[in-house]
Amino acid sequence: MSQFDFDQRLQRAATGAQKYDNRKALFGRDDVIPLWVADMDFACPSAVTAALQARAAHPIYGYHLFPDTLYQAIQAWYLKRFDWQINKTDLMMCPGVVPSIHACINALTEPGDGVIVQPPVYFPFFSAVTETGRKLIENPLLATENGYRMNLVSLAEQARHAKLFILCSPHNPVGRVWDEYELRALLAIAEQTGLVILSDEIHADLLLAQSQHTPLAKLAAPGQVITAISASKTFNIAGLNLSSLVVPDPAQKQAIDAEFKRWHVSAANPFSIVATEAAYRSGEAWLDALLDYVEQTRQQVCAFFAAQMPFIRITPIQGTYLLWLDCRALKMNDNALQNFWVQQAGVGLSPGSLFGTGGNGFMRMNLAAPRNMILQACQQMAEACEQLRYQQQS
Ligand SMILES: Cc1ncc(COP(=O)(O)O)c(C=O)c1O
């Protein structure tokens, strides 16, 4: 038996948790099983809590530096887990991945320049491009029988009219862990066209069923790839807002740094620093147990859907704790589909339409919660479908 109790139900309602306390505003009722926001309903590693408590015990929370030990913890983690040697001088501490995307766009492109994204994808990618006055170029993923793929043919053409490409690796919401062949093909396009790639690898640690994540930068030349990394998803500390960019090109690094300085924002928060360090130093056994737990949940959910709701197809995933459900057989528009799951099933999912082109008729379901809660949600969804079938027949 695992030494970690992922079955434990922790009360999150009325703690300010977005996933729980925003239900009324978003779904119109506050009793849905919330499987939407991409954080986990599991306690983070106990070493993280202990480090936070120890830091809190010192009653001065003034301006902070980033200690060498933080850099070392990040470097050691990536070397061990991905055989990726990150130079300290390439690492920039940032107050989150989404702000880093905005900073990179501002620093590396001009208003009107093309920025490519691959929908269906994490929706802040779109707003990061449009809100900074850049031109959004979409290269939709190809949905095949064997899962999603990048459309490298259209990308080769689009890359001629773009400065930056934002890769989601692994890909939220479709759960793809890109293989080395695809990543090398992407880099070949970047090399031919001068395209710079910003690789958002926030989900890199969340690998299911023996999948292997390859950091794109490991395969690339300096200047081709900037990588966004964070312990936030991995260890369920996203509310602490610390991430890093790996920027091997000094001129790019200087330009991005200037962006953050212009906004006068810093990631030097004493709590996020100790939490991240503790997670990387002491959280490995917890993470491995977590991944086993989520994978078992995924298998049970897939088996349940296959038996009870075979008309809803579950996209095979290799990474993330997010399932991408193809609900098009229900033949509902996106509003009706969302309403159906909320009102009839009492389950709060993320509508696929949020993730742009290719998302209509899909829903994203978060699996990172105690298994009996996830299975309860599945049961309620199956009952809602049964009810619908009954109504349609009568
Ligand atoms: C691909 C991706 N990037 C970034 C984020 C959020 O990063 P941050 O909270 O550090 O801004 C998420 C959260 O779901 C995500 O899925």
From TrEMBL:
Keywords: Aminotransferase, Lyase, Pyridoxal phosphate, Transferase
InterPro entries in the cross-refs: Aminotransferase_I/II_large, C-S_lyase_PatB-like, Class-II_PLP-Dep_Aminotrans, PyrdxlP-dep_Trfase, PyrdxlP-dep_Trfase_major, PyrdxlP-dep_Trfase_small
Domain of life the protein comes from: Bacteria
Domain Aminotransferase class I/classII large: 31-379
Annotated Pfam families: Aminotran_1_2
Keyword presence, Isomerase: no
EC number(s) per entry: 4.4.1.13
Cofactor field: pyridoxal 5'-phosphate
Keyword Mitochondrion found: no
Gene Ontology MF term list: cysteine-S-conjugate beta-lyase activity; pyridoxal phosphate binding; transaminase activity
Family membership noted in the UniProt record: Belongs to the class-II pyridoxal-phosphate-dependent aminotransferase family. MalY/PatB cystathionine beta-lyase subfamily.
NCBIfam families per the UniProt record, alphabetical: C_S_lyase_PatB
Name of the featured protein: cysteine-S-conjugate beta-lyase
Organism, as annotated: Methylophaga frappieri (strain ATCC BAA-2434 / DSM 25690 / JAM7)
Lineage start: Bacteria, Pseudomonadati, Pseudomonadota, Gammaproteobacteria, Thiotrichales
